[in-house]
Amino acid sequence: MNKKERFQAVREKRAPDYMPVWPRVMSQMIYAKGWMLPDVTGVDWYDSDKITEAVLDSIKVVDYDLAIPTYCDYAFGVPPLGGKINIPTKFGVAAGTTDQQPVMTKDDWSKVQKKLASYDVRTADPRMKGALEVVKNVSKAVGDEVPLCPMYYVGTTAAMFLFRPNEAFLEDISEDPEWVDEMCKLATDWSLDWIRAQYEAGANSVAFIAETMGTLMISPKDGERFNLPNIARVVETVKKEFNQPTWLHIHGDMKTPKAYSYLTKLAKEAGVEGFHFDENNPPEWIKEQVVDKLGVSACIITDGARIVSGPVDKIRAEVKDWMSRIGDGLGLMMAPSCQVLPSTPNEHFKAWVDATHEYGSYPLKK
Amino acid sequence: MGEFGPLTQAVIDGNGKKVLELVSKALGEKATPASILSEHLIPGMIEVGKLMAEGEYFIPEVLKSAKSMNGALEILEPLLAQGGRESAGYVIMGTVDGDIHDIGKNLVCMLLKGSGFEVVDLGVSVPLAKFVEAAKAKDGKIILGLSALITPTLDEMPVVIKAIEEAGLRSRVKIMVGGAPVTKEFAESIKADGTAPDAPSAVTLAKSLLAA
């Protein structure tokens, strides 16, 4: 099987040759090349050649099974809206750190709305323009053999990253929910445009959207109000315009009754095809309660601390243990926790990917 | 939810206006600032912590309650200082270098202050030297709280801990680490003295670290 066929098998709950592995975010890809963020991007520039090299290495050298060339940068699009960003010098991180958000007070909102009305995601931000070049380059290099996913945030997470300082936005949720509705809708519109641009540049697989407030920072009730309709809109639009399904990365413990009810709505009402959770949800629970019960695909999430600290034999032992806990393992792929540090030795990642491919050969051994 | 008096309930509800009204009323009725804090405001925040642990409250609700309490503290703190209130301990807090997120840190600072700690908030993206300098500036057993939200900046936490060790301060500086990506395993792996899953638990942790 090639990587695209392998991922397709997971999506259809068939047995792949071995379990595919979801890639680590761009920071790890960049750091693995020995670069820091200022080596590959600035406030108004983006080195498409270097970042292409980092993405291709993650597929060819580390052997990840998906490519997400825009994964992930939460300062994309912020400067043209009036925000100020800086590029951290000390860490090889993917995200530009936002210094000043475009909407510091509600008075700024009308100006930002006007800018959004004429915003072209393909040209407005040089960094995004560079990122689209990376999508094109990677698409050209991997052809149709590797799933190449477009990526951005949705709903509350997109609104916070694009518009408002974190703490102010979380206060808005209690103090001015109607405004939050409006910000989430417009941020999701922007996200959809960015996803469209990535498909046009060569993305060929599922749309990958992230809602990292999940049930970690906001309640399932707020998730249902602010995020569920926007996620449903992305799913519907991506299906209609590109005939592709949507996968969602969501943070938080989804096992509580209220969170599970929200998760069920995301699957059944919004139509999310696959979930990428965080480490609050154990693999056997994901298999039983998500894949088997809700009929969707999902990622099992490796404990970040193990990949960070190693050693290789313990990483391999953990992967082997996990493979024994997920029954037939159909509908599942492996993914890294968001806790993984950029300074994690590349050999730890490689050992984790190789162990997943080795111990995750189908049919899985009991 | 149990039965609480109106002031405690106003803190739980995050009704800042009502908290201020009831604190002013209590002071007018000659209640002591210390009793207002310990008998009404802190029990409110303890309940907020319980509600968060039970999955009933999330960050927006906790933030609202903490801000309500903070408003009350602005009135009470000068009065408490006049009364020679005994400090529960000294805490230096900061978000590590490279990370500008501060919601979690701010919440912990507010709750620590409300629980009687002296808190020095160094702010966000705090350079290593500033943590060491602040720890050197205060004698005795103290707490250093390191916060991070974005995963890449977690790397800075062990760097700060090492610098505190190299400065010969580690025996008297208890270090707690926190933030969404921080786990108990991570805290242990970097030899921090503890971590807490949420802001109210951080107060309990701070008390236990100083008592140990």
What tags apply to this protein structure?
heterodimer, A: alpha/beta, TIM Barrel, 6-stranded parallel beta sheet, two-stranded antiparallel sheet, 15 helices, 10 strands, 49% helix, 10% strand, globular, B: 212 residues, alpha/beta, Methyltransferase, Methionine Synthase (B12-binding Domains), Chain A, domain 1, Rossmann fold, 5-stranded parallel beta sheet, 9 helices
Describe this structure in words.
The complex is a heterodimer of chains A (366) and B (212). By secondary structure, chain A is α/β, with parallel strands linked by helices. Chain A has a single domain, classed as TIM Barrel (Alpha-Beta Barrel), CATH 3.20.20. Helix content of chain A is 49%, strand content 10%. Chain A has helices at 3-11, 26-32, 37-40, 48-60, 109-117, 126-142, 155-162, 166-175, 177-201, 220-242, 257-268, 283-294, 304-309, 312-323, 346-359, and strands spanning 41-42, 45-46, 84-86, 97-100, 151-153, 207-211, 246-250, 274-276, 297-302, 332-336. A six-stranded parallel beta sheet of chain A has the order 5-6-7-8-9-10. A two-stranded antiparallel sheet of chain A has the order 1-2. In chain A, helix 12 (283-294) links the parallel strand 8 (274-276) and strand 9 (297-302). In chain A, helix 9 packs parallel to helix 10 and helix 14 (312-323) packs parallel to helix 15. The model of chain A has no long low-confidence stretch (mean pLDDT 92). With 212 residues, chain B is α/β, with parallel strands linked by helices. Chain B is built from nine helices and five strands; from the N terminus they run ααααβαβαβαβαβα. A five-stranded parallel beta sheet of chain B has the order 2-1-3-4-5, sandwiched between helices. In chain B, helix 5 links the parallel strand 1 and strand 2 (117-121). The longest helix of chain B is centred in the N-terminal third of the chain and has 24 residues, at 59-82. The mean pLDDT of chain B is 89. The chains are: A alpha/beta (366), B alpha/beta (212).
